[in-house]
Amino acid sequence: MTKKTKIIAITGKGGSGKSVTTALMTKLLTEKYNKKLLLIDADPTHPHLSYLVNLIPERTIEDLRSEIIKSSMNQTLEVEEVARKIDFKIYDLIKETKKFGLIAIGQPRIEGCFCPLNSLLRSVIDSISKDYDFILIDCEAGLEQINRKVIKNVDIVLIISDMSVRGIETVRSITESAKTFTNCEYIGLILNKVKGSYDSLLEHITNLNLPVLGKIPEDEMISQFDLEGRALIQLPENTPSIISVRNIIEKLLNQKSNE
Ligand SMILES: Nc1ncnc2c1ncn2[C@@H]1O[C@H](COP(=O)(O)OP(=O)(O)OP(=O)(O)O)[C@@H](O)[C@H]1O
Ligand SMILES: [Mg+2]
Description:
8 strands, globular, alpha/beta, binds adenosine-5'-triphosphate, single chain, Rossmann fold
């Protein structure tokens, strides 16, 4: 293996648990495995990851992008030119703790500019990845960012599903898109909010033909932390969801060393 950084995209249907899974992985990868991590909050509509990991950047990619566009009022800038200017200042946007950094795409403020923001995100991912062991991208729900090749150059695509047929059907479409539009070497399914028996879903899950990396139980502690607005990276280590995510990471790290 020549490349050091592993880029992991965390995808799935809306509300399936992408941000929660990203936050729990962050806790474990930094505290337990001592990895250098960059988080990318790539969700322009529900940018919640910052709160789950208690690291809120002062400025987003969108802030920088609108500044650049405003400062060149009379010129129409090509996406590539904005990308080049952003590249130059990208490190200013990363909020860092000793353990990890976070960069957020932000919410588009200028009408009709949604796609360019996604294009800029692609260039950001490509230019900053080399400085970290892992990059975790908390994606927008659904297929948009995959189909637009925003997350083309990723190594691993994790698809999160809740325990619903709709969730599993979304996994199917994301898998097809990930195979078509990304260069990923591994796609894995994570079942989230698992409780009780789920016999009626088993056939749907088996038909996906995807490795099930793990099952995260519905966890009262997550709901309690949600209620109190507390960051999930402060969850105790013996919390059921943390134990499951730890197993998932073990599998991912072993899979990495098997390459
Ligand atoms: N394992 C779990 N146990 C209990 N609650 C959970 C679990 N996973 C997620 N949740 C809750 O479900 C809700 C949705 O989770 P989350 O925000 O991570 O989903 P998401 O896929 O990122 O959503 P969006 O598509 O809006 O970005 C949150 O209120 C979260 O606290
Ligand atoms: Mg989210």
